[in-house]
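## retry 2 of 3
previous attempt timed out at serialization; input unchanged, resubmitting
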Amino acid sequence: MNASILIISCDKYSDLWQPFFQFFMKNWPDCPYPVFLGSNTIKCNAENVTTIYSGEDKDWSSSYRKILAQIPTEYIFVTLEDFFISSTVSTKRIQNLFDFIEREKAKHIHFSDLPRPDQWLNSDFGIYDQKMPYRVNVAGFWDKKYLINLLLDGESPWNFEIMGSYRSSYDDGFYCANPRAFEWVNTVEKGHWMRDAMDFCKKNNIAIDASRPMLSKQQEWINQLQKIYFNSIIKVNWKFRLTIMNYLRKLLVSY
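## retry succeeded, writing output
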């Protein structure tokens, strides 16, 4: 099939490539798709991985568009170098997702059901309505051409997920997968190792670069509280959230 895997990265995260691909090869040894890694200037030496260079980093979205333009396939599964795969990946499941995006002419599929979809198409796929916040996620399955057109120079990944959702609000074709395609561990936050991630690597006998600093306990607590808050809010129906927010704006605005 006309599909590939892309790991988005950059030179300053090159120390994560070796452990990332150790987990990748361990949990998905029969991956049949071409695998690309996006970098600025440093080559990735992992086996069966093609490095794509974006050159000097101007901003995240500009570099990303340069990388995407060099990928020959029509559909891509995008993930990040700090998402270490922690469960066995079913090639059949991934192929079903690629088949769906091609058959339904989908633009984007989240690889988990967060946020919750507006409706379920069937037991495997949920549908996001046009105006739904966070219907755009950096990671997931994408129609490459649509993704390139959705990106604007000068954005960060967080800007893209928020503003890209607004820009996509007149388009259908946004879905989520259920259950998620695989499990993963988020290993780095704000450029620092997370303690649980370091323990996870140690438990699996995967060496990491100790020169990268570790997140402070205080910051980890803050991150956990923010994650709990976000995951709780995102489960509330977005139309209800917007109704409440609009009501509060009208109530609090003074003239």
